[in-house]
Amino acid sequence: MTRPDLNQLVTLEALLAEGSVVGAARRLRLSPSAMSRALARLRETMGDPLLVRAGRGLVPTPRALALRDRVQPLLQEVDAVLRPDEGLDLAGLVRTFTLRTSDGFVETFGPALLTRLAAEAPGVRLHFLQKPDKDSAPLRDGRVDLETGVVEDTLGPEVRTQALFRDRLVGVVRAGHPLASGEVTAARYRAERHIVVSRGDAEAGAVDQPFLPAALKRPATTVVGGFSAALALARLSDLVATVPDRHTAVMRTGMHSFALPGAAPAFTVSMLWHPRMEADPAHRWLRGCVREVCSSREA
To answer: Long-range contact list for 64-71, CB < 8 A, 24+ apart?
Structure first.
């Protein structure tokens, strides 16, 4: 089926509003002959004469009269669809955003983010998903609106990124652990029993591997899938957890954290999104909220 030419709506609206070919032509800045041809095409498309001769003027047919009040709202709707979205009614916004993050992000930054959203856009709901891998497919296929993490070379080139904050690894033990007192040397650190957070095979998939100095490489006594599990075990045992400092700040309350011996490199935690969301006003607003909350949260 052939799609209708939406330009004919503009012609129809001008003809119905002016009630004459000459007036419609002037309104659309066309010649009278061009407008007459446009009216002929409209009559053929709609199967109705629309405007008929009555003395020296034209009068609308019943079909034209029935359409007169419908055409203008249709044009306004088309115009709103095609025009860049310049306004965002946060108070009336009703939407659910899905954020995929590693554990620790929600505990540390979630409360301030939710408070901000409740104040500005109470109809917005956040759906936090656990991030089990680095696959960017959920962003591409729309299952995830926004993601946080360390940008790696394997990231798809189409994904947009923006830095949120700098972080570095720290060691964490229970209160009263031997490492909670005295200088933590590389030898003391390696000699302890360690929990390793890994998305795959033990050391090979350890999330801290790219940021741990070679002098601190240690065998894994226990392997878990996330920072919260690592800290829960370290809190109730003599195991040592190595986790990102700012990312897990709230989760380490009541525990002893120490700087790793040597020069553990800092790394950048960023937010990631698909280009199709780049110009979406609501998504742009959410990105601003996440960025400001992360930059203002004290480590």
So the answer is: 64/16, 67/12, 67/16, 68/16, 71/9, 71/12, 71/13, 71/16
Please tell me the distance from the alpha carbon of residue 131 to that of residue 146, in angstroms, as a whole number: 11
d(CA 72, CA 59): 19
Three-class DSSP category at 59? strand
pTM score: 0.69
* Cβ pair 174, 236 in contact under 8 A: yes
State the number of CA atoms in the 13 A half-sphere of 96 facing the CB.
7
User: Would the pLDDT of 17 be above 50?
Assistant: yes
SS percent in the chain: helix, strand, coil, step 5: 45, 20, 35
**Residue closest to 99 by CA, chosen among 88, 110, 91:** 110
At 76, which CATH number?
1.10.10.10
* 174 shares a domain with 161: no
Reading the block at residue 128, the tokens are 């936090």
What pLDDT does residue 161 have? 92
The average pLDDT across 39-43 equals 89
pLDDT, position 214 = 84
The count of domains in the chain is: 3
Q: Which domain holds residue 78?
A: 7-82
**Model confidence over 82-93: pLDDT tens digits?**
665 567 889 999
Question: Are 242 and 276 in the same domain?
Answer: no
